[in-house]
Specification:
single chain, about 60 residues, mainly alpha, globular
Amino acid sequence: GNISSYTLHFGTREEVIAETLSCMREAKRSRGIIVGVSNYVVPGTPRENIMAMLETIQKYRF
């Protein structure tokens, strides 16, 4: 799966980073993934959380 839209919308920055890393680690075992949101970005999702997800993907891409 991908990053939960619930976590992205309601989670803390740290929770978004943790879930993003977890998704990326799981994907590493299957040799590739396009990381994204599980469904869609809910209106009103904090920009800081979206940026946390994107920055984590850039920083830790395997």
